[in-house]
């Protein structure tokens, strides 16, 4: 098997201000599938085409934002090896016991220099995508309910010390740098798009003074038409839209950004390209960042660059 090590973003745990309102939003507007609730008050969701039990978890809190991000690794041997590698690199890790999150195995948790809680895990119960593994249909009712993204795709996190973060992802966890934005000095890296797979990014970071911030969680749509349909559903439900529909120069993704009722930004996107680990990094200079952000409009949208949760 060519793909080993860290496989993909497996889950993100998000804080919401009103749980009932959020459950309604993520079930009916976003069209995620609720898969469980735990005794800590967390509600678990997955996207319709995901096989594992959960990918998007919410809990009620006084402040919106992200609690932690989890990436799935190939197997337990990989988990043990990456934990050892992280420790040797000087990163302290701790184990969270299997079952602390519903249907999820043991997790290796650590804090990134950007202030984000990040974890690796190898096991999560496979519940399937509802279409079975024998002669499956291409879609079913859940894929037409609400925005109905295919899968959790990536997240963009804001925080300090992204140069250190890059070392952890590239030198320890086996990611590669797909694209980057340089700061005004045309030297320092202001933003990073990192992949552990064939995807144009699995996680991204922007340098920002405040630690642990969430810019957006991104959901994959099957087509540009489905992104536009997502925009229609946002408008029908009076969802607060930030930017789009448009296309980024960075990653070439086609996108809409909007906020959940608590002010957590999410993205519905499709497209981009499929880099291999031997591809060379694409660089956006500061003077062209407006194209990087919004290629057709060439606009540095103020809200997009400054509002985080
Ligand atoms: C994405 C993406 C910025 C661009 C963000 C890009 C911060 O979210 O999915 O490619 O300018
Ligand atoms: Fe994104």
From TrEMBL:
* Listed Pfam families: Diox-like_N (PF22247), Glyoxalase (PF00903)
Key words, A-Z = Aromatic hydrocarbons catabolism, Dioxygenase, Iron, Metal-binding, Oxidoreductase, Repeat
What is the enzyme's class at the highest EC level?
oxidoreductase
Question: Which SUPFAM superfamilies does the entry mention?
Answer: Glyoxalase/Bleomycin resistance protein/Dihydroxybiphenyl dioxygenase
Q: What is its EC number?
A: 1.13.11.2
Q: Which reaction does it catalyse?
A: catechol + O2 = (2Z,4E)-2-hydroxy-6-oxohexa-2,4-dienoate + H(+)
Under CDD domains, the record lists:
2_3_CTD_C
Q: Which cofactor does it need?
A: Fe(2+)
Instruction: Name the domain of life.
Output: Bacteria
Quote the InterPro entries the UniProt record gives. Catechol_2-3_dOase, Glyas_Bleomycin-R_OHBP_Dase, Glyas_Fos-R_dOase_dom, GlyoxalaseI/FosfomycinResist, VOC_core, Xdiol_ring_cleave_dOase_1/2, XylE-like_N
Which PROSITE patterns does this chain map to? Answer: EXTRADIOL_DIOXYGENAS, VOC
Question: Which GO terms of the molecular function aspect are on file?
Answer: catechol 2,3-dioxygenase activity; ferrous iron binding
Q: Give the range the annotation lists for the signal sequence.
A: none
Q: Which residues form the VOC domain?
A: 8-123, 151-271
Self-association state and partner proteins as the record states: Homotetramer.
Q: Which family does it belong to?
A: Belongs to the extradiol ring-cleavage dioxygenase family.
Q: What is this protein called?
A: Metapyrocatechase
* Gene source species: Alteromonas lipolytica
């Amino acid at each position: 098997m060519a793909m080993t090590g860290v496989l993909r973003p497996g889950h993100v745990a998000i804080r919401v201000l009103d749980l009932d309102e959020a459950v309604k939003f993520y079930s009916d507007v976003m069209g995620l599938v609720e898969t469980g609730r735990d005794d800590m008050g967390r509600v678990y969701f997955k996207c319709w085409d995901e096989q594992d039990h959960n990918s998007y978890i919410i809990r009620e809190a006084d402040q919106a934002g992200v609690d932690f991000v989890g990436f799935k690794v190939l197997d337990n041997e990989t988990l043990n090896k990456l934990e050892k590698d992280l420790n040797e690199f000087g990163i302290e890790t701790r184990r969270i016991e299997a079952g602390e999150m519903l249907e999820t195995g043991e997790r290796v948790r650590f804090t990134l220099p950007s202030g984000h809680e990040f974890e690796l895990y190898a096991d999560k119960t496979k519940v399937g995508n509802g279409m079975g593994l024998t002669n499956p249909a291409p879609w079913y009712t859940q894929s037409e309910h609400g925005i109905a993204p295919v899968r959790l795709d990536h997240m963009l996190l804001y925080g300090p010390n992204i140069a250190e973060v890059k070392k952890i992802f590239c030198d320890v966890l086996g990611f590669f740098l797909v694209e980057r934005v340089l700061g005004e000095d045309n030297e320092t890296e202001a933003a990073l798009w990192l992949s552990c797979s064939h995807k144009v990014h699995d996680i991204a970071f922007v340098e920002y003074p405040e630690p642990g911030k969430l810019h957006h969680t991104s959901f994959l749509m099957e087509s540009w038409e489905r992104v536009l349909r997502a925009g229609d559903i946002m408008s029908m439900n009076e969802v607060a839209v930030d930017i789009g529909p448009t296309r980024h120069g960075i990653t070439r993704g086609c996108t809409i950004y909007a906020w959940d009722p608590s002010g957590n930004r999410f993205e519905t996107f499709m497209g981009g390209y499929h880099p291999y680990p031997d591809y060379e990094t694409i660089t956006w200079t500061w003077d062209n960042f407006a194209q990087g952000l919004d290629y057709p409009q060439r606009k540095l949208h103020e809200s997009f660059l400054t509002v985080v949760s």
